[in-house]
Structure formats: structure tokens, C-alpha cells
Design a protein that fits this description.
- The chain is mostly beta strands.
- Helix content is about 5%, strand content about 50%.
- β15 (about 280-290) and β16 form a beta hairpin.
Length: about 450
């Protein structure tokens, strides 16, 4: 009786925190376009409210301490297809439409996670450790505008194809508390576009470069940061499954010392050097399961991120000929609120050996870019991001497409105990943003942006 009462009090507290968080964040909700939130289809479908649930291999990204909830060896592979447009209208009525370098950003951002519970694999002498490695694209942008557009002196193309390599460890102290520790190795790879940060524009004149030239600035580097996390489970049901989880993650700042080239019409003008600072991020979340039985599960989760974009003060380009191209940034830190839910059916008589999960969520963010340094390549504006998705999990005796047993989907002797397909759709619905007082007056005007993202993840549990 006391346990049930305490759980009800926790649920009431969760709802109170949810309402408080919404009232705090929504009035100034704006979007941080350079940070790609969706790093698995299951989490993306729940508005990326996954810090406290963290119960599939994407925990390696969302909350590494949650890796201790996984058993055996588990893998997850996926990608996101991102499309949409930004329509610009200047104060004089001139217009331009930007896209993601086509109908869809290509190559698309992806995610890969490999996680092993070392105790389950026979390394019990090491204690309750889990280890994993992940690969994803946590920061990025890709925008293209016409070369004859009204602000072509500011931008015609930009891309940031950054890869994060994530070796990670987690330790389960007891049934209530787990910790995670990992590295974030940021680098640029030719697997994703040109393999460097790149921005193109039409040159207005100066430095001996003819006016009207197509100018490209690029640069790349490799750097590292770290992350620490914990997961606290105060309540479990009689089967030992969590009824309440509380998670927190800290991701450190990291600095890229970019080196590259300044090109004019494809010809080398000078070498370049610049400094780009990736922000520190604090994430916290609480998840509750009002229903968690052998047949059904229902989760509610509320998460908040704090992203320290104020570290990005300038991106001045230093040329090897001694000149400096000023690019002040003066970005601002902000919050992201995430709400997500999942309803899962287990052991359905009509679909034996399959589990089905329906998911939904909502994200709300704050802008990091002031009007004065706004760049059309990062169309940050007020945004509301609803999401939906489905998860289909097949046990070994289930049939995949009526053609093959799910337990036979492996390679050689490596046969999965579970095969899952997760699908998600997110729509970033931006409110109109009107820019005034920009350092490049051609950027001033109205921006209307709508971005779509569809995600797919495949999961194998061994």
C-alpha cells in the first residue's frame, strides 16, 4: 500500500514538473538547427524524450548509464531522411527559396550503436559493466540558395558534416543507480559530403578577388570531448522493471581548430584557419510507467536540455596571406523541452511473437542566433516539432514478412533473440521570423521554414 501511494505521488510530481516545464519554455520556443536531436527512430518518435527511458542501444547517445539495462550484445543501425524549404522575402519583395541541397539532404545523417553487457558475455569478474561504441552526426546543417539570390553575398551554400565517434562504458552500482562515462571524438569524414565544413557565397569584391566570383571557405579538424551520466530507478514492479527512472547527462564543450582553404571560382586564394566551439549540454529527464504489466506498457517522459551555445562567440577566418575575414557569432544559450509517450502491446494473441509500440512526442526549442549575426544557412526561428512513430519487435519464432523466421535473420551462427524495426516522423513547424539590423543588410527580411524528417532504425538483440 505504501509503495503504491509513493508511486502515485511520484506520478503527480511528474505531471507537475511537466506543466511547469511547458509554462517556462513554450513562450520563447525557437529552434537550434545545428544540433540534430534525433539519433534513433524510437527516441525521435517520442520527441527525443529518452534520457530517462534509455532502454535500447541508442542509450549510448541519450544516456550511457542506461546501457546497464541492456542484456547480451545489442546493435542498432539507422538513418534519417531530412527535407524541407526556407522561403525568404526581402523588405523590397525579392524572394529566394532554400532547400537541403535537393529534396532530401544527401548523404543523410546516420547512427550506429554497438553495446555489450560484459557480465552477460562471461566477464563477471569485471563487475556489472557494459561497454559500447557509437557513430552519429549530433551537429550538422545543409542549406542551398540560388547563386543569383538577394543575399548571395552572405551565403549560397553551407554544410557541416560532423561525425561523432563515441567509445563508452557504463557501471551498475546497484538496482537503483547506474553511471556512464564516454568520449566524444568529433571529426569530419568523406563518408558525409565533402568531408569538411563548407560555406559558399558570391564575392562582393576585395582582396584581389574579382567581384561576382563564387567563393568557397572550408575547413576541418578532429577534436574530443567527454560525457558523464547517471540513471536512478527508485521504483520497480514485481518483475523488476522500472516504474520510475530519473536520468541526467553532461556533455562537455569541445573546440575545433579548423584549417582549410579559400577558393575563388575553384582556384586557391589562401589557406584558412578558424575556431568553432561546440557547446556543452546538460540533459535531465524523468520517465514514469503508469502501466507496466506482462501484456502492456505505457510510458510518459519529460526531458529538458540546456545547450551552451554562448561559447560560439566568433568564427573569424584567418588567411595565410595575413588578412582576416570577420564572422562574429555571439550565439546565445537556450533550453529544449521534450515530451514523449510510448504505448506497447506485448504477447498479442493476433500477432504471436511480435511486440507493437505506438509513440508520440513534442519538442520545443529556443533560438541561439540573434538578428545581427543571423545566417540563412541556419534558419533558426520559433518552432514546434510534433512527432509520431511505431516500433515492431519480432521474437525468434516470429515470421518476418511471412518469408523467414526472425531468429534466422542473423549472419552465420550469430542469430538474434529479437529483431526490431522502428519508424518515426517529425515535422519542424517554424513560425515566421523577420530579421532586422543584420550586419549584412541583404539578409534582412522574412523567413518561412518547414522541415520534415523521417527516421528508420533496425535493432538486433543477441
Amino acid at each position: 500500500m505504501l509503495r503504491s501511494r509513493r508511486f502515485r505521488l511520484t506520478l503527480i510530481l511528474f505531471v507537475g514538473l511537466l506543466l511547469w516545464g511547458l509554462s517556462f519554455v513554450i513562450p520563447s520556443a525557437q529552434a537550434q538547427t545545428p544540433r540534430l536531436q534525433g539519433q534513433s527512430a524510437s527516441a525521435a518518435a517520442m520527441g527525443n524524450a529518452f534520457v530517462a527511458q534509455a532502454d535500447d542501444p541508442s542509450a549510448l547517445h541519450y544516456n550511457p548509464a542506461g546501457m546497464t539495462q541492456l542484456h547480451g550484445f545489442q546493435t542498432l543501425f539507422g538513418t534519417s531522411l531530412i527535407g524541407g524549404t526556407t522561403q525568404f522575402t526581402s523588405p523590397t519583395g525579392a524572394q529566394a527559396i532554400g532547400d537541403r541541397n535537393g529534396s532530401l539532404a544527401w548523404p543523410p545523417p546516420g547512427h550506429v550503436y554497438l553495446v555489450a553487457n560484459l557480465k552477460d558475455l562471461g566477464f563477471s569478474a569485471l563487475g556489472d559493466f557494459s561497454a559500447g561504441i557509437g557513430f552519429n552526426n549530433p551537429f550538422g546543417s545543409l542549406s542551398r540558395y540560388p547563386n543569383n539570390g538577394p543575399f548571395n553575398s552572405a551565403l549560397t551554400f553551407t554544410t557541416l558534416p560532423l561525425l561523432d565517434i563515441k567509445p563508452t562504458l557504463a557501471y551498475k552500482l546497484n538496482e537503483q543507480l547506474s553511471f556512464g562515462l564516454g568520449a566524444d571524438i568529433y571529426t569530419f569524414s568523406g563518408l558525409f559530403g565533402e568531408g569538411h565544413l563548407e560555406q559558399k557565397s558570391i564575392w562582393p569584391g576585395g582582396l584581389g578577388i574579382p567581384a561576382g566570383s563564387l567563393v568557397e571557405l572550408n575547413g576541418s579538424d578532429t577534436t574530443a570531448g567527454f560525457n558523464v551520466s547517471f540513471l536512478y530507478t527508485p521504483y520497480r514492479n514485481s518483475d523488476g522493471k522500472p516504474l520510475v527512472n530519473i536520468g541526467m547527462v553532461y556533455r562537455s564543450q569541445a573546440t575545433l581548430h579548423l584549417t582549410g582553404n579559400l577558393l575563388a571560382n575553384g582556384n586557391l586564394v589562401a589557406g584558412t584557419a578558424a575556431t568553432f566551439v561546440l557547446p556543452q549540454v546538460f540533459s535531465g529527464g524523468i520517465a514514469v510507467w503508469p502501466v507496466r504489466t506482462q501484456n502492456r506498457e505505457w510510458k510518459l517522459e519529460f526531458d529538458v536540455d540546456y545547450v551552451g551555445w554562448k561559447s560560439n562567440r566568433t568564427l573569424d577566418i584567418r588567411l595565410t596571406n595575413g588578412a582576416v575575414l570577420p564572422f562574429p557569432q555571439n550565439w546565445q544559450s537556450g533550453y529544449t523541452a521534450m515530451i514523449g509517450t510510448e504505448y506497447r502491446w506485448l504477447q498479442l494473441p493476433s500477432l504471436p511473437d511480435w511486440d507493437i509500440a505506438l509513440r508520440g512526442g513534442y519538442m520545443n526549442q529556443q533560438t541561439q542566433i540573434p538578428d545581427r549575426t543571423f545566417n540563412p544557412g541556419v534558419p533558426s526561428a520559433n518552432a514546434h516539432i510534433p512527432s509520431v512513430g511505431i516500433g515492431l519487435a519480432c521474437h525468434p519464432n516470429g515470421s518476418f514478412l511471412g518469408l523467414i523466421r526472425c531468429g534466422d535473420l542473423g549472419i552465420g551462427p550469430l542469430k538474434p533473440k529479437l529483431f526490431a524495426i522502428d519508424l518515426a516522423y517529425q515535422a519542424a513547424i517554424y513560425e515566421v521570423r523577420t530579421i532586422t539590423g543584420n550586419q549584412n543588410p541583404t539578409v534582412n527580411g522574412r523567413y518561412d521554414t518547414l522541415i520534415h524528417a523521417g527516421s528508420l532504425s533496425l535493432r538486433f538483440n543477441y
